[in-house]
Amino acid sequence: MNTYFIKESDFNNFIDNMLLQLPVIAPVLSSESVESFFSFEFLKNHDELRLDYDITILPPKKAFFPPRQVIIEFSHGKFHGTVNAKKQVLLGVHPYDIKAIDQTDFLFTENYEDINYTAYRNATTLVCSNIQTISKRAFWGSISHDVPARGHDAFLTKLTDLNEAEEEGYLFEVFNEKGHELLSFGQFLLATELQIQQAKSINESIKDKCPQQLNYSQDEMANTICRSFNNTALWDELAQDCFSCGSCNTTCPTCYCFNVEDSWNIDQQSGQRTRYWDSCMTEDFAKISSADGQSENFRKTTAARMRHRIMRKMVYLNDKLGTQACVGCGRCSIACTADIADPVNIIKRIMEEAANDSL
Amino acid sequence: MTAFENKKAENIFLPREAVILNIKETSQLEKHFTLRNADASKMIFEPGQFLEVSLFGYGEIPIGLASSPTRENSFDIVIRTVGRVSTAINQLKEGDSLYIRGPYGNGFKLEQLRSYPILVVAGGVGVCPTRSLIQYIMDRREEFKSFTLFYGTRDPSQQLFLEDLKQWRCSDKVEYYETVDKADEHWEGPVGLITELFKKTSIAAETRVIICGPPIMFKFVIYELDKIGIAHNHIFVDLERRMKCAIGKCGHCQINNKYACLDGPVFALSDISNLEEAF
Known about the structure:
The complex is a heterodimer of chains A (359) and B (279).
Chain A: E1 3-7, H1 8-21, E2 24-32, E3 36-42, E4 68-75, E5 78-81, E6 88-93, H2 95-107, H3 115-122, E7 124-129, E8 154-159, E9 169-174, H4 177-181, E10 189-190, H5 193-205, H6 218-227, H7 232-239, H8 247-250, E11 258-264, E12 270-277, E13 287-289, E14 295-297, H9 302-316, H10 318-321, H11 331-335, H12 343-357
Parallel strand pairs in A: 2-6, 6-7, 7-8
Antiparallel strand pairs in A: 1-9, 1-10, 2-3, 4-5, 4-12, 8-9, 11-12, 13-14
Chain B: H1 3-6, E1 16-25, E2 30-37, E3 50-55, E4 59-64, E5 75-80, H2 84-89, E6 97-104, E7 118-123, H3 127-139, E8 147-153, H4 162-170, E9 175-180, E10 208-212, H5 215-228, E11 235-238, E12 254-255, E13 258-259, H6 260-263, E14 266-268, H7 269-272
Parallel strand pairs in B: 7-8, 7-10, 8-9, 10-11
Antiparallel strand pairs in B: 1-2, 1-6, 2-5, 3-4, 3-6, 11-14, 12-13
């Protein structure tokens, strides 16, 4: 597939033409006070689009794995599935989130394919965009950084720092038929070799600019964290201020745990079975009930739950995914009220403790 | 055309209907249902596998199959009244329908049990999923060596499958021992913890052992088995977890890096004894 260029002056038209034909989910400004907060929303017009966003509050997985999703409707003893995926475009996804989507693509397909995810995912044209602004808690430059972003259909890079003679605009790489279809919405030109090189250097140079760094290899981290499993004092320390609110899970692009519940409509004859995001950091997540009000909780303490979260992100899924289940977006660090969820701080603390022990 | 439009994958969350043929009230808390697929198809499963059982408007719960696949025309489950779903199911009548998904999970590994002496240790409702194996062994007794069954409950009123118990007590196909933690005025059998039953018979070191019961029971039983010298890869435990989706996605049944719904619910002890979250 080819690489194209669209002029800055043609870009708004491209977005508006696309909006006439397809629903587009893209980053918009969500709220602005001392700081700006962005979120992925259905785009209404080109003015709303903020490709210069640093990070969104929730990850873009919600486009195919929404926080609440009706999976079955029932009425008078009959029931049916609700999968009804329509073509949509998810535009402006940063490379770290593309990597996370690649992980959930695999996890919702392995062993048993869940079409309540894959149908919506397959109906989505996924457009990656380059990172123009770096979030203050990001560390994607040093985690999962050697894994290529893949699974997207096109890649949009805003060309900056140009000579006066060069035209402002975006490089648009198209990887497959789904990406190619978008060309019909705008005035695209074939990109020049210079433009392709410019985009490449923009996307390469940003990798070293994360405010936070982890200077360990994936195996070093996985092995040391795994060995720290029984260091109860350490996990107690790391989880000491945890409120078990689950915000770290809710904002995580690679978290995919869910719960399922039934509810009735007001007629008491019909209703729905709904799945919703669940969090392994909440108290009841691993709890089972037995008779007479008794229960058994297999991860009773905040420390046990914190350990499980870190193991899942850094150890348990590595063999399956070929990488950690953390892409370094830093959303959990921002969302955590007590500011104890930051994987960078947690990993550094575990590595430091292990280094002290081996002295 | 997208990949999805070409593909007609099945929606794995859609259950199928099963009709209740018979209900037995086995104790104050549990009901024993005999079911048949509404389309009259045969239920194909392994002893130790489980179903997701649901009632629309109430929800879905994982329940171990309580009968052996050798009993071909129907299958059994036992529901203990605990929460919203089980309470609603236990109000159903014969002829009503339930909705099921499955069977799911790894059951008792029959190929690792055949031609060995077998000991089943069942505590409380742990007798329900193990009944699928007990029945299987009783039906195909010649495939196994000696067969010993230990069954312990808190008190006599908690005993399940009373008709089976009558049969097991006098059957020459099984060496059956039972106990209750606390007797009532009618109880004439042994009183004491399930581990006391090890004193009543001798268990050979080559025995393959299946354990199912409350989490607290496992370590005491394993302690007894260690004294006999039974290897941990010959001990199989049936674990109860919140297996919400049954397909290894929702995360609720995870034990360290294993999923009870995919890797279990029956595990060889040697595969999980190093997992802190197992017991």
